[in-house]
Specification:
The protein is an alpha/beta fold and about 325 residues long. The protein has eleven helices and eleven strands. The chain has a single domain, classed as 3-Layer(aba) Sandwich (D-Maltodextrin-Binding Protein, domain 2), CATH 3.40.190.170. Helix 2 links the parallel strand 1 and strand 2. Helix 2 packs antiparallel against helix 9 and helix 4 runs antiparallel to helix 11. The termini are far apart. The protein binds pyroglutamic acid.
Length: about 325
């Protein structure tokens, strides 16, 4: 018995000597499927390494605000983190193609886009000592308002919640007034009258209980933007080979699972909006045409400002 206890103590000591704890910030809350997915990723890594790598998810911007997460991973304040990929489009428009209206509007399109975007994103992030582990899309983005929107003109003058530069441009071209608000602050922003309309997924609509402050939703399916999980290259290199392999395997599983969760939510969360009293309606052809026109203007602007690598992604995507 004594011998056994000593053995157990020795094993515990050996494990704790090599065990690593990693903090993982994300801007999104616990009820978000992305957060559930990365929590499962953390559980998978912990299980595969027998506790050797213990990743703690910090949700809803509690560890770092959204805008600082990428920099925090780059500076090794944290080894790993999740953020909205197209927020990096101010660095290079290659990061933002998934948030351009009507370029990729279905999961099939989004998959094709990611397959040609991934190598470029990997190269650009490598310059900053960052490695992308996996990327998962939100359901296609729809329009939330009070009252039905029949044409783009109905958006005129509305204070419009935005989450990146592309959405800000979209809102401006629609004659609305964009205001940047993080997802976890949506309920408060509507409650205090900072904003009166938004474009986001059915997931974020449900997660922010949109029915408390909005009445109408139309699935304009304008774009399918992605989150990305990145790890600091040096921190990753510091892991032993087995742990590295466990992280990569869990990342691959998380990407597959995340895309499936997203597709399931596109349907289930739209139903949940309706169940809670939101009127879900198909966009009129006039509205769709108006929004497509905005998309065309934005794509022209995008091409004017895009780097060669960004343009190469668009070229490879459209020629597929
Ligand atoms: N939800 C996030 C990003 C896209 C989405 O569907 C948000 O609204 O901030």
């Amino acid at each position: 018995m004594k011998h056994l206890l000593i053995c157990a103590a020795a094993i515990a000591a050996a494990t704790s000597a090599t065990a690593e704890s990693w903090d993982m910030p994300t801007p999104y809350g616990d009820s978000t499927f992305h957060t559930q997915n990365i929590s499962q990723f953390a559980d998978d890594v912990r299980a595969a390494t027998d506790g050797g790598l213990d990743i703690t998810v910090h949700s809803a911007g509690s560890l770092f605000p959204h805008a600082e997460i990428k920099g925090a991973v780059r500076n090794r304040q944290v080894p790993i983190g999740e953020f909205f990929l197209s927020r990096l489009s101010n660095e290079d428009l290659a990061f933002g193609l998934d948030s351009q209206p009507f370029v990729a509007t279905s999961y099939d399109d989004a998959r094709k886009l990611w397959s040609v975007q991934r190598p470029v994103v990997t190269e650009l992030l490598a310059e900053q000592g960052l490695v992308p582990l996996f990327s998962v899309p939100w359901p296609a983005q729809g329009l939330y308002t009070t009252g039905e929107i029949a044409t783009v003109d109905d958006l005129n003058g509305l204070r419009f919640r935005a989450y990146n530069a592309a959405l800000e441009e979209f809102a401006t071209l629609a004659g609305a007034a964009p205001v940047q608000i993080e997802a976890s602050n949506i309920p408060q922003a509507f409650a205090t009258g900072q904003v009166a309309a938004m474009i986001t997924s059915p997931s974020t609509g449900v997660n922010s209980t949109a029915w408390d402050f909005l009445t109408h939703y139309t699935p304009i399916n304008a774009w399918v933007p992605k989150n990305i999980v990145v790890v600091n290259q040096r921190m990753f290199d510091g892991l032993d080979a087995e742990t590295q392999a466990a992280v990569l395997a869990a990342a691959e599983a998380a990407e597959t699972r995340g895309w499936e969760m997203s597709a399931a939510e596109a349907k289930s969360k739209t139903e949940e909006l309706a169940k809670n009293g939101i009127t879900v309606y198909e966009p009129s052809s006039e509205l769709s045409e108006g929004l497509q026109g905005i998309g065309q203007t934005m794509l022209t602007n995008w091409k004017t400002n895009a780097s060669d690598s960004a343009k190469a992604i668009l070229g490879a995507y459209t020629n597929q």
